[in-house]
């Protein structure tokens, strides 16, 4: 009779992500995860095969969480420019600068792995579509405004990180309100 898993893969991957957040991607080893999860290293190797596969699975699970969070927020905001801003502000809940900086280490890992990069590209398309939907009834909204807003959002996060005065949410909100106002007031390009 097969043994039942004492801990689901999802729970193990949550522990792996916590390890990465606390100590960086290099800290994700089978030995460290065994200590953190209470499972044996050999059990972890049996489940995930290699350190690279373990890291990829943990980061894919993180992408799943971001997909879910994005879809939940997109469904909850009004279909308006203010709703688009609220969606991006809701995705900006990083806490303090140290947490944001640690998150960039995860981004580095995503950029190194072609499958994780592709996952990020899919999320970008989904996010842009959700933002576009918020502007569907907005006169003068430029084509592909979702892509433009996503780029402005990412830029505002980077600029905040260099001078993290105040909350990231307020910085993002202020930046996006000004951006949307400028876009909607601009004359269409010839």
Automatic annotation (TrEMBL):
Source organism superkingdom: Bacteria
HTH tetR-type domain: residues covered: 6-66
The keyword DNA-binding is assigned to this record: yes
InterPro entries (UniProt xref): Homeodomain-like_sf, HTH-type_TetR-like_transc_reg, HTH_TetR
DNA-binding region: 29-48
Gene3D superfamilies for this protein: Tetracycline Repressor, domain 2 (1.10.357.10)
Stored Pfam families: TetR_N
Molecular function per GO: DNA-binding transcription factor activity; transcription cis-regulatory region binding
This protein's UniProt keywords: DNA-binding, Transcription, Transcription regulation
Keyword Transcription regulation carried by entry: yes
PANTHER family: HTH-TYPE TRANSCRIPTIONAL REGULATOR BETI (PTHR30055:SF234), HTH-TYPE TRANSCRIPTIONAL REGULATOR RUTR (PTHR30055)
Listed name of the protein: Helix-turn-helix domain containing protein
Natural source organism: Kaistia nematophila
Organism classification: Bacteria, Pseudomonadati, Pseudomonadota, Alphaproteobacteria, Hyphomicrobiales
């Amino acid at each position: 009779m097969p043994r039942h898993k004492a801990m689901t893969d999802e729970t193990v991957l949550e522990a792996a992500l916590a390890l990465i957040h606390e100590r960086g991607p290099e800290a994700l080893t089978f030995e460290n995860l065994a200590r953190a999860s209470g499972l044996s290293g050999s059990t972890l190797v049996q489940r995930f095969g290699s350190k690279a596969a373990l890291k990829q699975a943990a980061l894919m699970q993180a992408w799943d969480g971001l997909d879910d969070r994005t879809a939940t927020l997109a469904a909850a905001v009004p279909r308006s420019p203010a709703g688009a801003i609220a969606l991006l502000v809701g995705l900006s809940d990083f806490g303090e600068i140290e947490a944001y900086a640690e998150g960039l280490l995860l981004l580095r890992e995503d950029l190194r792995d072609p499958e994780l990069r592709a996952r990020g590209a899919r999320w970008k398309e989904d996010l842009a579509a959700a933002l576009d939907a918020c502007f569907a009834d907005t006169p003068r909204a430029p084509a592909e405004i979702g892509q433009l807003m996503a780029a402005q959002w990412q830029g505002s996060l980077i600029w905040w990180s260099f001078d993290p005065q105040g909350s990231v949410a307020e910085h993002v909100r202020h930046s996006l309100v000004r951006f949307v106002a400028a876009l909607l007031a601009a004359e269409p390009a010839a």
